[in-house]
Prior knowledge:
294 residues; 43% helix
Amino acid sequence: xxxxxxxxxxxxxxxxxxxxxxxxxxxxxxxxxxxxxxxxxxxxxxxxxxxxxxxxxxxxxxxxxxxxxxxxxxxxxxxxxxxxxxxxxxxxxxxxxxxxxxxxxxxxxxxxxxxxxxxxxxxxxxxxxxxxxxxxxxxxxxxxxxxxxxxxxxxxxxxxxxxxxxxxxxxxxxxxxxxxxxxxxxxxxxxxxxxxxxxxxxxxxxxxxxxxxxxxxxxxxxxxxxxxxxxxxxxxxxxxxxxxxxxxxxxxxxxxxxxxxxxxxxxxxxxxxxxxxxxxxxxxxxxxxxxxxx
Length: 294
């Protein structure tokens, strides 16, 4: 009888423990779903906001900002770094979505006081950020291609993003910026990359502005990241990449002007890879320094 009671007690304890575990898992799932929905709502509101121009909204069909940021795991309470915001196309979406709950760093070229592309680009961005209250919480940091840069305070970021920049930085620059992103991210943080995709078997010199997906993944892994997956959200099967003026032949640049304009408008914007990388949870900064010595 004593053995029977002991067995019943053990069985009851097991059932209770299992019930509590299932309840905890359900709570986590509900929280994650709610957080995911909240992030989607914040992005949808930003995308439809009046602060965005009709011209910028017209590019949503090619850039899929909501779907792209959801793939990277965006939530409104994150600390996010956008590397070289340029004209602020994605900043218009990120800034209001993060305002009041999260934080947005724009890692951009510094203004050195010289009359050159980099300084003028920084001035234009600063002017844009001052033009509307939705940008009031954006913090700008200095990013210099091919040189070590502090994109954000060490280990502070949940998400680092770069959109269509790798082709400008070349291999040396990409390798350095991936190290900088790794440094800025918390363990478990995400690096999101969108870039014009070089078709397999096509020589880079025949497709200016396009980058190898295989090489990009290898470069990120070398910097310490774990590859977490790819999405075809920004794919375009019509783009075969070999154009007279490279990727700039396509919209929105249309480098050939009126020549064959209808043809390139029909293709649309470039075929793009969308890659997600994770900084491993067990990473210590000392490990990073040893792995990525300059």
